[in-house]
Amino acid sequence: xxxxxxxxxxxxxxxxxxxxxxxxxxxxxxxxxxxxxxxxxxxxxxxxxxxxxxxxxxxxxxxxxxxxxxxxxxxxxxxxxxxxxxx
Length: 87
Prior knowledge:
Elements: E1 12-19, H1 22-35, E2 36-38, E3 42-47, E4 50-63, H2 65-74
Antiparallel strand pairs: 1-4, 2-4, 3-4
């Protein structure tokens, strides 16, 4: 069965940030950009009632030292199971 979701190229990850306050979503995106090379963020309404959803692609092959350390440490605790609230 084909997945309806686009699979990023090797070494890249698609990131979705959802927040009630657009400024909070932008702050989280900025932190990710300090750790990883990233594409320009794309912004969408989160729900008809408000909020923001940001999408960006991060390059995990081009990382800061802090991100490299975290990625190496997280490899041994990786959990591939889907979460119930994933979109």
